[in-house]
């Protein structure tokens, strides 16, 4: 018996969240052509760009 997949391959410094143990993968159906989806994508990209600019400003 080998054990569960990934057994013994723990990465040091990373803790496993017991609340996420054995959670089945969800099949999410997103309509990529829907206007709401496009609006959400633009909003997420905008926030990410702001985050990246702020991150670059901190490094400088």
UniProtKB/TrEMBL annotation:
One of its GO terms (molecular function) is calcium ion binding. One of its GO terms (cellular component) is cytoplasm. PROSITE patterns: IQ. It comes from the Eukaryota. Residues 1-28 are annotated as: Disordered. InterPro entries: Calmodulin_Regulator_PCP4-like. Belongs to the PCP4 family. This is Purkinje cell protein 4. It comes from Sinocyclocheilus anshuiensis.
């Amino acid at each position: 018996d080998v054990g569960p997949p990934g057994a013994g391959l723990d990465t040091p410094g990373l803790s496993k969240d017991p609340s996420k143990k054995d959670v089945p993968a969800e099949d999410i159906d997103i309509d990529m052509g829907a206007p709401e989806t496009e609006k959400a994508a633009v909003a997420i990209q905008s926030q990410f760009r702001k985050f990246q600019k702020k991150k670059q400003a901190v490094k400088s």
